[in-house]
Design goal:
- The chain is an alpha/beta fold and 469 residues long.
- The protein has three domains: 153 residues, Lyase, Ornithine Decarboxylase, Chain A, domain 1; 235 residues, TIM Barrel (Alpha-Beta Barrel); 39 residues, no CATH class.
- The chain is 29% helix and 21% strand.
- Strands 1, 13, 14, 15, 16, 17, 18, 19 and 20 form a nine-stranded mixed β-sheet that branches. It has an eight-stranded parallel beta barrel with strand order 2-3-4-5-6-8-9-12, surrounded by six helices.
- It binds pyridoxal-5'-phosphate (PLP).
- Pyridoxal-5'-phosphate binds next to loops.
């Protein structure tokens, strides 16, 4: 059986770039294979869409691009050029943000920080998004009296949300407020922050409600917070055909049960648990099923009625209370703004009869940590479609686990050596999160692709400057 296709959603600009097969081969010749391609103009489109949602609701806001989603200098400079802020989570990211031109007022440091990182952040004069009580107490100790360092308190432990290893538990908020009152000449409370790794709007509404209560409590302590930071977590849309996703998922489960051809390699179950003739649980690739865009999710949140506020929407309550909404979008800003292109080395048959298409990259270069990517790589063959087949894409490391797809993928004809293979939508976490340089393979080049005056222009990522002609 040939597996169902799960076509990737591709931005029109990226599709136009890929339509020129010779152009793609030329890029591989110039920059080597594999190569990461980033599209700053798609980033700009994504930013405009989020701004559109916020501008339409008269709420004051600040967008902080979450740097950790991708190392790209082109994305970072595009963000700086657009006048938004940035969220950094390491000393290296902080240096990179300063280098890209962000003023300290527009830099926020998030995540847990050791003493060295706290000192680095203080020296840079940036806003500190405090992760825990130790951090808050340590900051109070090391800053000079009168310095009024701007801080946000990240809180967690909202009823109904999964436990988080980050943030100050709601029950410890009182202790945090006491510290802030005691050291009010040293630390200036800007407001409260959270970051939930979920698409569920109801959970975010609960968190917003709890943060508003904390703002009230802070006022009662004589503090004057003005910011509510809702973090990131807005979803991406990966597939162009949600039905294809569901058909594939179904075929995979039938295969896992042994009631149909196996779509999985070896003992992989992708997070499913197979027992009693049933497939239980949820798969690691569930995020690839999402069809709700980030702007739609943001609009849904802002328009949701806030319990305890007379049914008024989140956006109106924030506006009426003159609060500033901060967002820390990562993946939603780079959605569709990056692809990774590799090449077929050869095709072989494995002992179990499976067809392995060997590529010149490894799984960790295009896969987010423990995930299986449930959108199909795009093979740019010289010839048209012929005989469709089911294949596994294999990586270039001498490790059994270096199968780029641990599932069979439908291809519309058998790939040939030299064919470019495109991994769509890799900019968010897929390119960088787990990439290792095992077996001394060098890191792929990262190249910015610009559409100018009707043609595509390429520029090494590190050299890209927005506004240059
Ligand atoms: C990772 C992270 C983000 C970005 O999250 P996305 O889901 O990519 O939007 C924002 N804020 C914090 C604190 C993070 O750790």
């Amino acid at each position: 059986m040939i597996p169902p296709a799960v076509p990737a959603a591709v931005h029109p600009l990226v599709a136009a770039f890929l339509a020129d097969r010779d152009g793609v081969r030329e890029v591989l010749r110039c920059f080597g294979s594999p190569v990461h391609l980033v599209f700053p103009q798609v980033f700009t489109d994504n930013l405009a869409a989020l701004r559109g949602v916020l501008d339409g609701r008269s709420v004051r806001y600040r967008i902080c691009y979450a740097h950790k989603v991708n190392r790209s200098a082109a994305f970072l400079r595009t963000a700086a050029h657009a006048g938004i802020a940035v969220d950094v989570a390491s000393a290296q990211e902080l240096r990179s943000a300063v280098g890209a031109g962000f003023a300290p007022e527009l830099i926020e440091v998030t995540g847990p920080k050791g003493a060295a990182m706290l000192r680095t952040a203080l020296a840079a004069g940036v806003t500190i998004n405090v992760d825990n009580l130790w951090e808050l107490a340590t900051l109070a100790e090391i800053v000079a009296p009168g310095s009024a360092v701007p801080v946000l308190l990240r809180v967690s432990g909202f009823p109904g949300s999964s436990p988080s290893r980050f943030g100050i538990d709601l029950r410890d908020a009182g202790a945090a407020l006491d510290l802030l009152v005691r050291f009010r000449d040293r630390l200036r409370l800007l407001g409260f922050a959270f970051h939930l790794d979920t698409a569920a709007t109801t959970e975010r509404v609960t968190a917003v409600g709890d943060c508003l209560e904390l703002i009230e409590r802070a006022y009662a302590h004589g503090l004057a917070p003005t910011v509510l930071d809702i973090g990131g977590g807005l979803r991406q849309v990966f597939t162009a055909d949600a039905q294809g996703y569901h058909a594939y998922d179904h075929a995979l489960r039938v295969g896992l049960l042994g009631r149909g051809p196996a779509m999985h390699w070896g003992n992989n179950t992708f997070g499913y648990h197979v027992a009693d003739g049933m497939v239980h649980g949820g798969p690691v690739f569930h995020k690839y099923a999402n069809t709700e865009t980030a702007p739609a999710l943001l609009a849904e949140l802002l328009d949701s009625p806030l319990p305890g506020h007379g049914g008024r929407a989140v956006g109106s309550v924030l506006a009426d209370n003159l609060l500033e909404l901060w967002l820390e979008p990562g993946k939603s800003l780079v959605d569709h703004a990056g692809i990774t292109v590799a090449q077929v080395e050869f095709v072989k048959r494995a002992g179990n009869g499976a067809t392995l298409v060997h590529l010149d990259l490894s799984r960790d270069t295009v896969t987010a940590a423990d995930q299986e990517v449930l959108i199909d790589p795009i093979v740019l063959s010289e010839e048209g479609e012929s005989e469709p087949a089911g294949v596994y894409f294999a990586g270039h490391l001498c490790l059994e686990r270096d199968l780029i797809t641990q599932r069979q993928v439908r291809v519309s004809r058998m790939p040939e050596p030299g064919d470019p293979v495109v991994f769509a939508n890799t900019a968010a976490y897929h390119m960088d999160l787990s990439a290792a340089q095992a077996s001394m393979h060098p890191a792929p080049a990262r190249v910015a692709v610009l559409h100018r005056d009707g043609r595509f222009v390429l520029c090494p990522d590190a050299d890209y400057r927005p506004g240059d002609r």
